[in-house]
Specification:
CATH superfamily: Lrp/AsnC effector binding domain/regulation of amino acid metabolism (RAM) domain
Radius of gyration: 16 Å
Mean pLDDT: 88
Strand content: 25-35%
Largest sheet: 4 strands, antiparallel
Number of strands: 4
Strand order of the largest sheet: 2-3-1-4
Number of domains: 1
């Protein structure tokens, strides 16, 4: 049993994480997009890339609805998005 969990109850569900590949479209501005990334609490990490997309963004949200909202906001500042849910992190320290 976890500390702080009442007998017979479930521990809180872990937050959902997603990796979002973003390509800026329609003349969207990189500075404006990055300002949004810094202001968005759901953004855990973000990388500007060279290649088939402009950014890779890692989001963490408590609910699927929250994740949908965060991705929608990325679209609202000029991002064409492709989202992948994270199942789990592979622990590379166990090499």
């Amino acid at each position: 049993m976890s500390v702080g969990v009442l007998p017979g109850s479930r521990p809180p569900a872990s937050a959902l994480e997603a990796l979002v590949r973003v390509r800026l479209v329609g003349g969207a501005d990189h500075e404006r997009f990055e300002k949004h990334l810094r202001a968005e609490s759901a953004v855990v990490d973000a990388w500007r890339l060279a290649g088939d997309c402009d950014y890779e963004v890692r989001l963490r949200c408590p609910t699927l609805a929250g994740l949908d909202t965060a991705v929608g906001e990325l679209r609202g500042v000029g991002g064409d998005t492709a989202t992948t849910l994270v199942l789990h992190r592979v622990n590379l320290d166990e090499r």
